[in-house]
Specification:
The chain is α+β, with helices and mostly antiparallel strands. It is built from four helices and four strands. The protein starts with a helix and ends in an 8-residue tail after the last strand.
Length: 144
């Protein structure tokens, strides 16, 4: 599992570089609504749909997201073999740092394991932007 954690983390721990336009959400509640929609797609193994929902709101360049998505798809069969079938998703927690940072954590549940999905939002002058997102199989990190 360490291999999967390292690979997945490396693929989506993307530093935001380059400039492109992005949309924002109005509030932390709207950010939660967006991540719930994304995770609904993830829970039905529609990763393409999840990424398409995410793209307008993130500052991560589209080309980097697409390249990482392609790499992840190569690993999907191994994940399914190790973790089993998808059982859906579950919201875990919301955390804030000051008035400008928000972290929303969900899990993608499988028959034998779970994957942690973490979304980081930053409050810009225009609203809340999806600054970065990550997912991995490090469920131990979910506990204090």
């Amino acid at each position: 599992m360490h291999f999967i954690r390292t690979l997945v983390f490396a693929l989506f721990a993307i530093a935001a570089t380059g400039a492109h336009s992005f949309e924002t959400v109005a509030s932390p509640k709207a950010a939660r609504d967006l991540t719930d929609q994304i995770m609904t797609k993830v829970g039905t193994n529609d990763l393409d749909g999840a990424i398409q929902l995410m793209k307008p709101y993130t500052i991560v360049p589209e080309a980097e997201i697409d390249a990482s998505l392609g790499q992840f798809k190569l690993q999907q069969s191994m994940i399914a073999q190790r973790f089993g079938a998808s059982l859906g998703t579950e919201f875990v927690r919301e955390e804030r740092v000051g008035d400008s940072l928000l972290r929303l954590t969900h899990i993608h549940r499988f028959e034998k394991h779970a994957m942690r999905w973490t979304f980081y939002f930053y409050r810009s002058s225009k609203g809340w932007v999806l600054n970065t997102f990550r997912f991995d199989d490090n469920i131990v990190a979910l506990f204090p």
